[in-house]
Amino acid sequence: MRRDLLMMFSNCNTRTSILGLLLLFLSACTEQVGPIDDDSVSSIWIIQNAFVYDGLGNDPVNADVRIENGIISGIGSYPASPGDNIWQANGLALSPGFIDPHSHHDTKLMQQPAPKSALGQGITTIVSGLDGGASTFGAPFVSIAHNFSVFQENPAAINLAYFAPHDSYREIVMGEDFRRAANSEELNQMATMLRRDLEAGALGLSTGLEYEPSLYSETNEVIELAKIAAEYGGKYSSHIRSEDIKVTEAIEEVLTIAREANIPANISHIKLAMYELHGGAGSVLEKLDNAREEGLDITADIYPYDGWKAPMAILMPERDYSDRAAAEYSLNSIAAPSSITISDYEGEPSYAGKTLAELAIEQGLDPVDLMMQLLQRAEQEGLNERVIGRNIGEQDIQTFMQWPFTAITTDGGIDDTHPRGQGTFARFLANYVREKNVVSLSEALRKMTSLPARNLGITDRGTLKQGFAADLVLFNPESIQDHATFEDSLQYSTGVDAVWVNGELVWDKGRVTDARPGKIIRRQNAKND
């Protein structure tokens, strides 16, 4: 059965299929090697009898993979030598480790340096500082160099990279006076911070233009900063200014920034989060394809869920929480009260898990009045609030996934109240590959490995080939499965047999090991490399 599904997913040629059948038959007669002792000192691993996917979209081959000193040293047939660490793959799929190009897993990483939420779904590298914001692992942001120094003192089981956070710069420079365009002096201060962080190895510039304080920035402010990132060979990644009412203008803004700054640009967690926009993904992709034909390097990433998580404030784009007409329009056209679930409202823990419709009934209020009251109170008292809105069309999700330049991402965190933090990669493989055949297994793995590496400018990971870093995930395509739901998000994925990071075993059949081999991944031409 395993061979049949692997062949169906990857469309292997006849010769590979016959070889696969023989090796699988032999593996069935081979005794499974037990869990490896974490204290083993050998730097050599041989993963035997795996279906090896290179991460480039090619068909798999049955082979052994040899790892030495954290590097893939060969793919072929390798008999074991005394002292080698051996892992019998028994015909499971072996892929490059999954790269999460838009992650918030770093926030709790120092408290959980081997996070089951990430390792259980095969993630070996997280990229943070996205949506324009960064923290120092939950504490106030200082600099990318500072974050890297904290990580070096307390290494994790996964690799870590950062984008330079525009929103954080704006908050530091402008303080509470952010509801306006930045002046030249303020822009110069942000530029200085950006250069500092790029020199430390940031992959590029990130913005969160739908959120305060960057909501109030002008396009030219972003262009000037993006030009600096381009000077350093960096990328631009943006949570665009609107994913609903003004999404067309927001996409045009990304293209303008890419064009004017001459920089590769990525649209974060691409979506159409408004009912009347459902079915419009094809038109969006036509616009992006035209931009690519023009010569712009435009890419995207996506998570495999119909719900987003953000401040409820984004449902009121003009941020006038006394405008009842705007609130009515939002709940009629953007997201219905029954589709909005409160995940956090500071000071009111009883609100969590209830929809806006349910809470309105409980409090005897109209949902429009309730939303306005909640937003006004949060603004006046400076309260943190987050909601999950489930208003993304399924067909659009699949259409965006099929675009050759869309990578898979979580946009999630460790033990997240949104299921994406625990389930994204497993859900993509289970639901959109195995069950719905939206993309083939080989193509799916490309979208989780070499494509995000390419989009991010990471040159030594994301492909399973000799000389590349040995970030690897061994999983069963028949059984890999997400379990996190919107109702119960704290359930980890299953079906990942083993995970190696920089050649060290960090995930062993459902348990984390003691290894903490994660590395800092800097932009290739950074001064600190």
What does the largest sheet look like? 9 strands, mixed
Q: N-to-C terminal Cα separation, in Å?
A: 46 Å
**What's the count of strands?**
21
Structural class: alpha/beta
What descriptive keywords fit this protein?
16 helices, six-stranded parallel β-sheet, alpha/beta, globular, disordered N terminus, TIM Barrel, 529 residues
Task: Describe this protein's structure.
There is one protein chain. The chain is of the alpha/beta class and 529 residues long. Among the domains are: 98-306 and 397-465, Alpha-Beta Barrel (TIM Barrel); 309-389, no CATH class. Helix content is 34%, strand content 19%. It is built from 16 helices and 21 strands. It has helices at 2-10, 14-28, 116-119, 144-153, 166-174, 184-200, 219-231, 247-261, 281-294, 324-334, 356-363, 367-381, 394-402, 420-435, 441-448, 450-456; strands at 44-52, 61-68, 71-76, 85-88, 93-96, 98-100, 123-128, 159-162, 164-165, 204-208, 235-239, 265-267, 298-302, 308-310, 340-345, 385-389, 406-408, 472-475, 496-501, 504-508, 511-512. Strands 1, 2, 3, 4, 5, 18, 19, 20 and 21 form a nine-stranded mixed β-sheet that branches. Strands 9-10-11-12-13-17 form a six-stranded parallel β-sheet, sandwiched between helices. Helix 8 (247-261) links the parallel strand 11 (235-239) and strand 12. The longest helix has 17 residues, at 184-200. The protein is globular, with a radius of gyration of 23 Å. It starts with a helix and ends in a 17-residue tail after the last strand. The model is unreliable at 1-40 (pLDDT under 50).
